[in-house]
Write a structure and sequence with these properties.
Blueprint: H1 2-23, H2 25-28, E1 32-35, E2 38-40, E3 47-49, E4 52-56, H3 57-63, E5 67-71, E6 76-81, E7 84-89, E8 94-97, E9 100-103, E10 109-111, E11 114-118, H4 119-126, E12 129-133, E13 138-142, E14 156-161, E15 172-179, E16 184-189, E17 193-202, E18 205-211, E19 218-221, E20 223-229, E21 232-237, E22 242-244, E23 252-256, E24 262-263, E25 267-273, E26 278-289, E27 292-304, E28 310-315, E29 325-333, E30 343-349
Parallel strand pairs: 1-13, 24-30
Antiparallel strand pairs: 1-2, 3-4, 4-11, 5-6, 6-7, 7-8, 8-9, 10-11, 12-13, 14-15, 15-18, 16-17, 16-20, 17-18, 19-22, 20-21, 23-25, 25-28, 26-27, 26-29, 29-30
């Protein structure tokens, strides 16, 4: 009796052993992967199960030039290549390609820490041609296009301009830049103007022009060039800064009071000059007191013309002489050390 039972147990064990030995080759036999003609080695090779070939998603996608990212929080894989975005959850038969739902033959699975997906999925989402050769147990993957490469760096190799000295009103500044072709470019002049468009005259050579307005005075103004190629930006400064005068000589004028006008006390004088100029105003008087002629000065005041060239002073007289003739004289020196021609206005003490 014992021998009969033992024989039955041995028979069952042999049957199970043969069954395992028969199904094991589906996983044990090596599956080769050829991507674009080159054999690829994976730390987790493809497998065949349930009549389906499953291949490593990251390994094949990266060989095709895709960027792959794993999110351990929700066990989801994100992959992008040439405008195609793929989202795939482990254990799910549903994937999303550019937001559209795609159904897999079998769910994505994890083997030895690697995500494996059905062979057909690679073809559907990446536009690759995929072929399974059962005799040699080889997967052939051929990309439908060139592999995606990281974007090339945008470069500016040189910036030059035509200014040989101080620029005056009416002068035209020409800025030339060499850099990555196929972009949009502009330049700015610090303290003078915003973006001035540049045109790509030939491959990688950009040129822009700007005519100096008047009045203007800026020293050591930097010229900054910006190049944008498909959202990638580079900037560079011209090696030589600019001096912009806006005119050949320092300028100066008295705007108020007008010649012959009656003024009160204090005497308020307004005018324009080259921006940044140091302006000095003096008020002298000539008049009569008790039939005696008198003359002298009410004093002087100094100020600086603002960025627009405007200036103003106020001079308080210690002695007010009614109907006295007032001689208002202004002098100025701009930041470059140029002296403006003095100007004079005659008014009447009210």
């Amino acid at each position: 009796m014992f021998m009969r039972i033992l024989s039955m147990v041995v028979a069952v064990l042999l049957s199970l052993a043969l069954s395992v030995a028969w199904t094991a080759p589906a996983f044990a036999q090596t599956v080769r992967v050829i991507v674009n003609g080159s054999s690829v080695a994976f730390d987790q090779p493809p497998i065949v199960t349930g009549g389906r070939v499953l291949i490593p998603l990251r390994g094949v996608f990266e060989q095709l030039g895709a960027f792959v990212q794993w999110n351990p929080a929700n066990h989801t894989i994100f992959a992008t290549r040439a405008g195609t975005e793929v989202q795939l959850g482990i254990g799910s038969r549903i994937a999303f390609v550019n937001g559209s739902q795609v159904t897999l033959d079998v769910p994505a699975t994890v083997v030895a820490g690697r995500t494996l997906v059905p062979l057909r999925f690679v073809s559907e989402v990446m536009g690759a041609h995929v072929q399974w050769e059962s005799v040699s147990r080889t997967v052939y993957v051929t990309s439908s296009g060139a592999a995606q490469q990281p974007p090339a760096e945008v470069r500016i190799t040189s910036v030059t301009h035509n200014a040989q000295g101080a620029l005056r009103a009416g002068d035209t500044l020409t800025v030339r830049m060499r850099g990555t072709p196929g972009g949009d470019a502009f330049f700015t002049i610090e303290g003078v103007t915003g973006a001035v468009p540049m045109t790509e005259r030939q491959s990688g050579v950009y040129v822009g022009r700007y005519t100096i307005p008047s009045p203007f005075l800026v020293q050591n103004a930097r010229v900054l060039v910006t190049l944008n190629v498909d959202g990638r930006v580079a900037t560079a400064l011209a090696p030589t800064p600019l001096t912009v005068t806006g005119s050949a000589n320092a300028t100066l004028a008295i705007v108020s009071p007008a010649s012959g006008a009656s003024v009160g006390n204090p005497v308020v004088v307004r005018g324009v000059a080259t921006p940044g100029s140091r302006v000095t105003v003096r008020v002298d008087y000539r008049g009569t007191v008790l039939l005696f002629p008198v003359s002298g000065t009410y004093g002087e005041a100094t100020t600086t013309a603002n960025a627009s060239g405007n200036w103003q002073v106020s001079i308080q007289s210690s002695v007010r002489i009614p109907n006295a003739a007032l001689i208002i004289t202004a002098q100025a020196e701009d930041p470059l050390g140029r002296e403006a021609t003095p100007v004079t206005v005659q008014a009447t003490q009210g």
